[in-house]
Amino acid sequence: MNPDGTYSPSLLTPENRGGVTAGEGYNFQDAFIASRIPGWLADPYFSFLLKEGSGDVEVRFDDHGLRRVELYQVKDHHVTPTECRDVINAFSIKEAQSPGTYAGFILACRGLGREAESLRQALEELRGAFPMYSQGDRVLVSTEQDVEERARRIGLAIPLDFLRMKVFFDTNLGDMKSDERLCEQFIGSVVQKIPKWAMVGGLGLTAAYRDIARLINISIRQTCSHDLLDQRIQQAIDASSSRLNKEGVTVRLYHWEDPSFDLSEKWDVLLDWSEHFDRISRKVPPPALWRDGLIPALEEAQRRIRSCTDSRLIRFRPSACLSAGLALGWAFSEVKGYTFEVQQGHAIWRTDTQPSGRHLVVSEEVSLDRSSRELCVEFSHQADVTSKVDQFIQTIGKAFRAKIMLVPDLGIGARIDGPTALAYADDAKQRIRKVVDQYGCEIVHLFYAGPLGLAIFLGRLFNAMHADIQCYEEQDRGGYAPSCLLHT
């Protein structure tokens, strides 16, 4: 603030340095900026962008000597009418601080409260119709009065001309907690607007997005030029193919983590399922959502990888719920030629190593209802699930043709390594398939308690089960919830 009480437009004032000192936690902002870069690059007049200048990002265009600067304020949440009012008031202050500097102010967010959204729609309609009428035309005057009334409802007392000419919104972001959708927007924008990269595969453009997002993350108060951004995208695309063939494809499921998503995390395929899961309550989506949304997303990811690279090494970095691990292995199955590398604790487990000589023990096999074509499998590795499963089955009144209980030969709770996990997965496949064939079962109900890596290894063998697999997830208050049904 200046000595006379007025606000200074200097970039060094505290009110203009909030984002500079914030450090971590601005990943969504960086992802948003990266997602909009293809559209800016496609504009022949785009010259520079600056993160954490007078706003979250400022974008400059130069048209034959005429400079145009747009200022963005980025919010990673649904903006209330009160917050919308405060942001627009701040825009007005910046306009007064530096008259004529900014051609437009844009609030980018995941959505607006009802009254703020009403104002946004009214402003867009006013701008669209404004050239048609002359000042004083009754239809224009009435429309302007309606817009002013909507502005007053959220507490705004800003001149209408400023709102109409300089205040804009970008709300097409969605309610995501990571940047999966913003990456999709980046790729879609590249394909639509930049012909020289339109035929680049999705993994190459994903690599470009990640590199640009990291560049933006570190470029605080460092101007990024059109040429620099263009070069970085091209370099990331050029390096992608050889990297994937050498290192494999890194797949991440974001849904079960405690910390916020971090742009520094490496990934080639990101599936953001966070809105459907809750780690504390162990909530998982209902079977219909698995069937219609999550499983198709995994299948599409597999097809995308297959179309973009010859690499068949999938590098998975947890965490994930056990059902997701089983489904992941199923989507990238052994029969499709995929190899898995899974981080299990501090160790790395791979499916291209030699299995150990360990095996599972069928602690019990029980023949039940002869009219049923469904098999119950209790896989007790980290904990004995028998009593909990039996109680759950009794509660839901489910009839099974038979039930088998599998336990490791090393004992329940024993620590295992990758080769042992491979041996257990293969042995489980053989034993389950034998019982399926013996009784002519069509569905296997799998209650699994074991390491995530072993769940993935088992899932990749499901194509050989001769019956569909219905998975279950244990709940925090007892019992189980049905999750994904995996067709084999």
Tell me what you see in this structure.
The protein has helices at 18-22, 27-42, 81-97, 114-129, 138-153, 160-166, 180-193, 202-218, 226-247, 287-308, 322-331, 386-396, 418-439, 452-459; strands spanning 46-51, 57-63, 66-74, 104-108, 167-170, 224-225, 249-254, 269-272, 313-316, 339-344, 347-350, 360-367, 374-380, 402-408, 443-449, 468-474, 480-486. The protein is 42% helix and 20% strand. Residues 17-26 have low confidence and may be disordered. It has 14 helices and 17 strands. Helix 14 links the parallel strand 15 (443-449) and strand 16 (468-474). It is elongated, with a radius of gyration of 28 Å. Helix 13 crosses helix 14 (452-459). It is an alpha/beta fold. A 6-stranded mixed sheet has the order 5-4-3-2-1-6, with helices on both faces. It has a 6-stranded mixed sheet with strand order 12-14-13-15-16-17, sandwiched between helices. It has 2 domains: 14-170, no CATH class; 276-488, no CATH class.
